[in-house]
Amino acid sequence: MNKPARSKPHVALMVETATVYGREVLSGIMRFMRTQEDWSVFLEQRDLLTSPPSWLNDWQGDGIISRGSTDEMIEAAVRRNIPVVELNDRSEVDKAHVRSDDAKIGEMAARHLMERGFQHFAFCGFDFEAWSQRRQEAFVRTIQQEGGQCDAFNSPWMNLARPWEEDQQAIAEWLQSLPKPCGIFTCNDLRGQHVLAVCSTLELTVPEEVAVIGVDNDELLCQFCQPPLSSVIPNAEAVGFLAAERLSRWMKGESHHETQQVVAPTGVATRLSTDVVAIDHPEVASALAYIRQHACEGLTVDEVLQNVAVSRSTLERQLRRYLGRTPQQEIRNVQLKRVRELLVTTEMAAEQIAYRAGFDHPEYMHYVFKRDLGITPGQYRQSVRGQES
Q1: Phi/psi of residue 151, each to 5°?
Q2: What is the rounded distance in angstroms from the CA atom of residue 177 to the CA atom of residue 244?
Q3: In Å, how far are 343, 346, 348, 349 from 334, measured between CA atoms?
Q4: Which residue segments constitute the domains of the chain, with CATH numbers given?
Q5: What's the mean pLDDT in 221-248?
Q6: What is the pLDDT of residues 97-117, one digit of tens each?
């Protein structure tokens, strides 16, 4: 059966509206439609595990973007020559596929905890979930590359195998067995909430004894936690934009390859659950806290030494020991993190960003950014937003 002639492509969006990740994906698709190409779309409120509607098997549309395709739906789409871009990250698929870079997420979480001086690390995730396993493997690998060791706890997602009380008890026993202080990476924010709830029950102090970082930066869920949860920001908006861009080219008849495309995370939203430096030298810990509080105010090393009772040689030696950086490099590190955050979350010009990050001149900010990251600020902003240069 031939498809009816249409002024706009008809696209079905099988993306969950019940999670912040799904909503960010939809936001990216919407940005593509507003700036590149208008579509007529089908969208319904749905959960991640909701099956696609049966009518899609006989649908006469032009394209599908899905986070939960069934084998039957994909086979029907293939028979009707309907392009399907899959966003599923719960298993490995061999279709045209866009998803978050779970390896980069795991690596970023590890770096975040190592920068805070932790010597003991652990991962808490879900069994039988490919995305959780990829994050765990990258986290453990990064820790081991730096000479560290990592413990792990996994149980089935959504408590399908046992009641929450049993899972809570198992997490409690695991947490009690860990050496302290310990930096824990949880596969997502929901798992982070699980761990923090058990820490509260056990009266473990967070972040002094246990620091916790999740993934997704779900503002409501992170603020619901006590204390508020730090989280890796996966850039789901770019996933949606790239998926829409890919589907558009496919619907126009351009050649395509059923390959996987991954999108790197944009950074870490640091909240109280990791707002600590695991340094056993109190004066050095105070100096580092001072740097992170004032670096974006044009801070110098001399100003740090004037406000903290520690010698220059001790500060240099201890920061190299714990962070692998000099005091000046740590100041620049904090400033560049602020630059990256503003590039992603605002439309500020370079002059404004330089001022907010503590640089005297935007030209020098541009020089330092490219020297340390290998790309210009403009290229970084484009890359994390899923746009081609």
Answers
A1: -90, 165
A2: 46
A3: 14, 18, 19, 19
A4: 10-100+236-266 (3.40.50.2300), 102-234+268-274 (3.40.50.2300), 282-384 (1.10.10.60)
A5: 94
A6: 899 999 999 999 999 999 888
φ/ψ bin of 159: left (φ > 0), alpha (ψ from -120 to 50), beta (otherwise): left
Over the stretch 174-213, which tens digit does the pLDDT of each residue have? 999 999 889 999 999 999 999 999 999 999 888 878 999 9
Q: How far apart are CA 241 and CA 27, in angstroms?
A: 8
List the structure tokens of 71.
Answer: 């084998």
Cβ–Cβ under 8 Å, residues 319 and 326: yes
Question: For the segment 61-99, what is each residue's pLDDT rounded down to a tens digit?
Answer: 899 898 875 666 666 666 777 888 888 876 665 667 899
DSSP state letter for 324: S
List, in sequence order, every residue forming a beta bridge with 64; answer none if it has no partner. 12, 84
Residue 71 and residue 80 in contact, taking contact as beta carbons nearer than 8 Å: no
Say which residues have a Cβ less than 8 Å from residue 170's Cβ, sequence separation at least 6. 153, 155
Token digits for 298?
Answer: 């044009």
Residues 6+ apart with CB under 8 A from 288: 277, 279, 319, 323, 330
Query: CA torsion, points 118, 122, 125, 130, in degrees to nearest 10?
Result: 90
pTM score, whole prediction: 0.74
Examine the pLDDT at 39 and tell me if it is beyond 80.
Answer: yes
pLDDT at 140 over 90: yes
Q: Taking 70 as the threshold, does the pLDDT of residue 365 lie above it?
A: yes
Average of pLDDT values for 292-310?
91
Kind of pairing between the strands at 267-269 and 121-127: unpaired
Q: Which of 19, 177, 191 is nearest to 109 (CA)?
A: 191
Contact call for residues 187 and 215 (beta carbons, < 8 A): yes
- Among 44, 48, 70, CA closest to 57: 70
Of 201, 202, 210, residue with least CA distance to 182: 210
What is the distance in angstroms between the CA of the first residue and the CA of the last residue of the chain? 40
The separation between CA 126 and the C-alpha centre of its own chain, rounded to angstroms, equals 17
Nearest to 153 by CA among 108, 106, 110, 121: 121
Beta bridge partners of 182: 210
